Amino acid sequence: MNPFVDAEQQGQEERPGPYERLRAKITDLMSHVPLRTRITGLVMVAVGVSVALASIAGLITVRNQILSQTDSTLFNHASQTAQMVRSQEDSAWQYRQTLKGLDLPTYSDTEVVVFDDERQTYTLRSSLPAIAPNDADVEVASNGTGTSFRNITLSDGTRVRSVTVPVEQSPNTPTTRQAVLLAQSTHDTQQTLGRLTLVSILVGIAGIAVAGSAGITVGRTGLRPVDRLTEATEYVARTGDLRPIEVQGTDELARLATSFNAMLTALARSQDHQRRLIADAGHELRTPLTSMRTNIDLLAQVFGTGSDNTAPAANRVRISDADRAELIGDVRAQMEELSLLVGDLVELSRDAKPQAAPEPVNLGDVVRQAVDRVRRRAPHLSFDIQVEPWFLEGDPTALERAVTNLLDNAAKWSPEHGTVTVRLSDGLLQVADQGPGIADDDLPHVFERFYRSPEARTMPGSGLGLAIVRQAAENHGGRVAAARAPSGGALLGLWLPGRSTEAPPSESASATPTA
Fold first, then answer.
1. Which of 101, 173, 342, 392 is least surrounded by Cβ atoms within 10 Å, i.e. has the fewest?
2. Residue 508: what pLDDT?
3. What are the domain boundaries of the chain?
4. Which conformational region is residue 430 in: left (phi greater than 0), alpha (psi within -120 to 50 degrees), or beta?
5. Contact at 8 Å (CB) between 115 and 220?
6. Three-point CA angle 51, 54, 59, nearest 5°
7. Which residue(s) pair with 153 in the sheet?
């Protein structure tokens, strides 16, 4: 809170205004309305408003056109009357005789009045109550120019439209300025406009009804793929069956269904990996566990099953100290193998990429550290190392584990006093041994989980070391490969994307992690 603003003023500043409260209320209300209803309502409102606006625009346009046509007709007839009045003498009788042949409008209610600037009028035709010129009409007569239109409501309620036009001065009456007022009833025009308004209202109502039907249809057909996707999701959650759903079309909903199928495929693949991992782990665990149980049972028979050791001496199993030491050593070795297998299983259980932030790593340093570690475990071997710097962003622990597994595999298959060749150039790490090599049939499978060639099944190991190498490579965007070395042994390769020079601190700080 701001200590320089009192609590009441601060409460007023933080209190939302009416617009924010209304928007929040509408948002909360719409969040409880089904999507189908919202789409239907949106289509109805959009189409209905469009039809209503089109009807109103059409009505206004036609109404203005009719009124404009009426005014134009009035003006033409008034102008013709003014020309014929000018050609006659200044007498009402002559006007009336002249107007007998005048083609006046065919409206039933018409008033024709000639008047001068002194407001003296001569009614030439009258089927309406008398209409007197007003000031605007007299001004037209006085000026001899201009036009005056007006709407008039007579005493009997009749609505008329009038126009006043000036009469050009006659040589016989040079000092008199006159004008013609022509008025016509708008009854027929109003009837026409009324029918047009009724038609527009009916069209608007019909348009809103069509909009409602269109909204319902769009809501049903548009959300049908969503309904199928929802049913498929509920079916997967209920049964665990990961069969893909049928995809129809190429629109956004089809893309959503395709993405959902991709997710189901990935989930099925993950479940299959888990099942195979559990089955393979159970198979691999069975052998050391059986061996440990046999050895422990034998030791129990030797040392007795209880603390009092009451079994007759003649019935006890006798073994030499050397055999007993061998049994205990075998149990210890099986326990170490189980520990190694459990550790490898935990490592492989991380099927996804690591969530920890990647760190700058020099793969050359990682290789040297791994070689030092393996050299201590295999002092009878020599290592031929040629390592170039290679920098990348990744998990240094996982990379060191992968490189160590490659070196351990080479050390396991190398003969006594053999040489392990290690090369790192342009991100490609190659480890070659002088062992018997890998059979052609085994080359595609050496990096699979629990895969062990017939020759490797008699040697210690879990069959997971090279699988961990492949997983680390894939998590860092790299790949692995196996081949025969020129010396006849195995050649295993690990390639990781990166760069040969260390990036400047500013670039490395802003670089996007790739691991």
1. 101
2. 42
3. 88-189, 244-351, 358-510
4. beta
5. no
6. 125
7. 159
